[in-house]
Amino acid sequence: METLKILQRIFCEVFDDDALNITTNTSQKEVEEWDSVAQVKLVLSIEEEFGIRFQMEEVSALKTVGGFIEVIERTLEEK
Amino acid sequence: MKPIKTITKDTVSYILYGLKGEDLQKRVVELIHELGDSFDLETGDAIADAVTFRQNGSESLAKKDIAEIKSPTALYVLARHAAAKRDYEDAIEHINSLKDRLSKPNAQILLLHARMLTRVGRMEEAANDLRFSFSLRPPYSHYVKAEVVLNKIVSSGRWAPKRPIKIALLASSTTALLASVLKAICFERGMAASIYQGQYGSYRQEILDPGSKLYELEADVIVIVPNHKELAFAPTVDKSVVTSAVESVRGLWKKIKGHSQSHVIQVGYDIPPSSSWGQMEITNPKGRLRAISKVNELISSDLPSGVSFISAVDIARHFEGEFFLKEEWARSKQYPALRALPLFAGRIAAQIAVVYGLTSKVLVLDLDNTLWGGVVGEDGVANIKIGPPSAEGEAFLEIQRYAKELKDRGILLAVCSKNNLADAQEPFLRQEEMLLKQEDFVMFVANWEDKATNIQKIASTLSLGLDSFVFLDDNPLERAWVRSKLPQVEVPEVEANPWSMLSVLVRGNYFEALTTTEEDARRSDSYLANMERTELEQSVGSLEEFLRSLDMTAEYGPLDEITLPRVAQLVSKTNQFNLTTRRYTIEQLKAMAESDDWWCRWFRLKDRFGDHGLVGVLLIERNGGEWVVDTWLMSCRVLGRQMERFMCKIFLDTAESAGVRVVRGCYAPTPKNGLVKNLYAEMGFVKSNPGEFLYNIEDYRSGDMWSDISIKI
Fold first, then answer.
1. Which chain B residues are Cβ-neighbours of A60 within 8 angstroms?
2. What is the gyration radius of the CA atoms in chain B, in angstroms?
């Protein structure tokens, strides 16, 4: 739950949309501007926020908020 | 309230973890209380994230309790909350108050402010905030995050760029992030850039194919960013390989020139991060590093017209072996390293600005603590720090050397200083160490007027646009003032130490040029010849609103053990704001402080830029129904902030309640204190004899003349 709260801010920032309301089920399909450039920005912002480094293969295919949360929490545990 | 350093983003998440409803609200209010006046954005975000989370019902935020705290963190949380609820006017108001509370400009707060302003259509203000945030040289991620806001401002059509620019970015690396940062820095420099990114890894084909998208685009500028990977040099390199690498690059330029009107900006090759042959890669005539340097040297000499060159090696110096990061390259073909993107893009933007004549042409310099250490009017010309043996003095000398070298290649220098003209000129006449001479400046403005007005006059006298001006000043207040009044002027945000000032100035790339001519070297002289250096006569600018935003608070009290040494120092040193310039020893002062015949007070001033310390002294002799102001002095650091009026009000208040009939003030002129010649008259005293002024307490009405003082107790 706490990770979702932080992602909420990051998504609002990256998409510059204060009203964007995400859940674990939010996916690329629902967010119009979620393209490959936005994906790079999301990944970099998340890495910076949590002080972690992803493997490129594991994040480039992520298409839902829930997917991000899973990878973030796994990476944090391994740290 | 004392700030508690142990509250961080992590402790906040830990403390608030799993809390809901009223428990959450209660704990948040406590946390904000505990944080007091200390502020860091990460901690603020952690708190705001917890309470503005939509699923948990942000409605229940204890807004009233938080609003009462009024600390920076409280303001930030309220702003975030308002933003999430799309109450933008409210958010803007909170951020405005927050900005006033911070001692240093914060790039992220400026970005948030810009975001909110775009929501309500205030695009020009948003553009100013965003440009200022970029000029603080934040990490690359800031530029990337700001891109969407920037696009909204540009596409609104309400921000007038100096020039729109079409850039084609061609590289043998991925360019998405470089493009984001480049666009942002172009924006900072007043250019609206649209950037075409070539196909990754196939830029040569694009250049060689006359029918490619690249030429369809008719770009203003084509930027080529290769890296050492593309050379794929072995540890030893034959001369023929070097030659063909050079010819290949020059061949591409020729193709571009044949098919388009675009200007070419060629970035040179970087040096690989590891060299298996060690020093032999340089000492061996065929060594790899030597070969790469040779390639760079050959492509950058004798540049054809319409081609400029940027040295990657020169930029790499700033990143100590971390300019090309193998890890980032392996991950996403990122070059240069993410950390290096702002500087790298900054150099490219500076070259583009050169091509379109958008570089700065005038450097306006403050004097005290900018060109030398110390305050000449106070410390005296013999005691200012310039040159060795003082390390600080050497740093100031470096700034002078940098400015002098700029002047020698055609950049105009001007002085804008709050000083008596005679004091300001003295170091130039009497300090041998000074590298800059008065004739190096096309204008020399030293007076007590506000600097925005002065800079405007300099611009109109020189007939140059304000957007070609850079203003360097160690004083955050002066910078903030000029920035708010003249947003076109570049005002680099520097720390108050000379080394930082120089490196920020250099990093800003304000004064790039393509070539230099003999005429450049004479430009400064010709300006001087055509124009008589005029001392500016100023009208007083209205500063009230600005002063109010400073949150000034003053304290005062009787002299005691703790304050006596500083008071004695001020009494013995202060020359400019000193009505009588009477010097007393510490023993004499102590006797006065203890005597019932005297009313002696020190004054301190604080504002949001910091504590100025003990800056004023009043020594008044009680003579029955008449008080005589024996000594009234103030440090020039706090000039122009109504402090003198505040001091005057305090002693008139006190005199009134003590039943005094009349206050007598004297002005004893010296070569240094012309500044306060009219002070008593300005405060409502009536001249009785030459140098003597009287104030009839009967006429004292505390309300009207003093009501606009923004200093609080």
1. none
2. 30
